[in-house]
């Protein structure tokens, strides 16, 4: 069933202290330092070629520095990887700035007091044999983004989407700003947002999950979050289900506020 909602609404007071001290990114003394402006050349877990930094082994990596035309490419097989963003500014003219081709669990953690930015341009990776990369942050694996006090993540998608996971996309206690020509947040299987502050300006849908093949997928879950969406089509689209628990959500300039077969708003 499709349910139409007004373009602007609020849902219960937002829980206080989204970014309490308890949300600190876990310390990792053994994190591998990776400055995108001066990538390490002697670490066997990292390969560097033509501006592309390829991470081939699991573990924890602290990403810093600035590059106007570079890419971090992750392929760790089934090994878990944690990427700590600590004032990284990364733009890529052809394809994603952060591309996760294959990995086990993928955790992206914002370091406290950091401002991080990922951008792409109006070109995708079109090389033969390579997947089309249509977002500054693009993951073919489950992706979890966790925030920290006074930490921000800005994503600018000039080609298509903003943040993409071809599986599940989870966001926890994060402050994220997205501007994109198509969809803002896209998790093919699901999008689960909790205790976060998010601003999305999207040329199509703001938040979307559209897996219709599995009955337990294709849902959007939002809890205790402050979300503002400017979208030309749907503000929030979960093909099977949209659940909203508390928080403050505003959808403006959209054709539909929420689209789903089942919509539940818990006061």
Low-confidence stretches: 1-28
CATH C-level category: Mainly Beta
First and last CA, distance = 21 Å
Mean pLDDT: 88
Task: Count the E strands.
Answer: 24
The helix/strand class is: mainly beta
Gyration radius, in Å: 18 Å
> In percent, how much strand structure appears in the residues?
over 45%
Strand arrangement in the largest pleated sheet:
6-8-11-14-17-20-18-15-12-9
Number of structurally distinct domains: 1
Question: Given the structure, what is the number of helices?
Answer: 0
What pattern of helices and strands is seen along the backbone? Answer: EEEEEEEEEEEEEEEEEEEEEEEE
Query: Could you describe the largest sheet, including whether it forms a barrel?
Result: 10 strands, parallel, barrel
**Helix percent band:** under 10%
Overall shape: globular
Examine the secondary-structure arrangement and name the CATH architecture.
3 Solenoid
Layout of strands and helices, then pairs:
Elements: E1 32-35, E2 46-49, E3 52-55, E4 59-67, E5 71-75, E6 81-92, E7 98-102, E8 106-110, E9 115-120, E10 137-139, E11 143-146, E12 152-157, E13 163-165, E14 168-172, E15 175-180, E16 185-187, E17 190-194, E18 197-202, E19 207-209, E20 219-231, E21 234-238, E22 241-252, E23 256-260, E24 263-266
Parallel strand pairs: 1-4, 3-5, 4-6, 5-7, 6-8, 6-9, 7-10, 8-11, 9-12, 10-13, 11-14, 12-15, 13-16, 14-17, 15-18, 16-19, 17-20, 18-20, 19-21, 20-22, 21-23, 22-24
Antiparallel strand pairs: 2-3
């Amino acid at each position: 069933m499709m349910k139409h909602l007004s373009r602007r609404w609020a849902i219960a007071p937002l829980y206080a202290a989204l970014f309490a001290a308890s949300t600190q990114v876990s310390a990792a003394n053994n994190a591998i330092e990776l400055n995108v402006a001066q990538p390490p050349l002697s670490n066997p877990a990292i390969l560097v070629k033509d501006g592309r930094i390829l991470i081939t082994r699991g573990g924890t990596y602290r990403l810093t520095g600035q590059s106007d035309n570079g890419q971090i490419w992750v392929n760790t097989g089934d090994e878990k990887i944690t990427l700590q963003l600590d004032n990284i500014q990364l733009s890529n003219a052809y394809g994603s700035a952060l591309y996760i081709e294959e990995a086990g669990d993928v955790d992206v953690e914002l370091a406290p007091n950091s401002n991080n930015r990922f951008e792409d341009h109006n070109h995708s990776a079109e090389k033969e044999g390579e997947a089309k990369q249509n977002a500054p942050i693009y993951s073919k694996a489950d992706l979890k983004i966790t925030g920290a006090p006074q930490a921000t993540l800005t994503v600018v998608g000039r080609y298509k989407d903003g943040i993409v996971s071809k599986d599940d996309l989870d966001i926890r206690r994060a402050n994220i700003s997205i501007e994109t020509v198509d969809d803002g947040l896209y998790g093919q299987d699901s999008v689960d947002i909790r205790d976060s502050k998010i601003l999305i300006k999207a040329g199509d849908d703001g938040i979307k999950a559209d897996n219709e093949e599995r009955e337990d997928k294709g849902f959007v879950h939002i809890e205790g979050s402050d979300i503002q969406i400017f979208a030309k089509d749907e503000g929030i689209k979960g093909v099977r289900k949209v659940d909203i628990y508390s928080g403050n959500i505003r959808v403006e300039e959209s054709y539909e506020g929420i689209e789903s077969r089942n919509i539940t708003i818990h006061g």
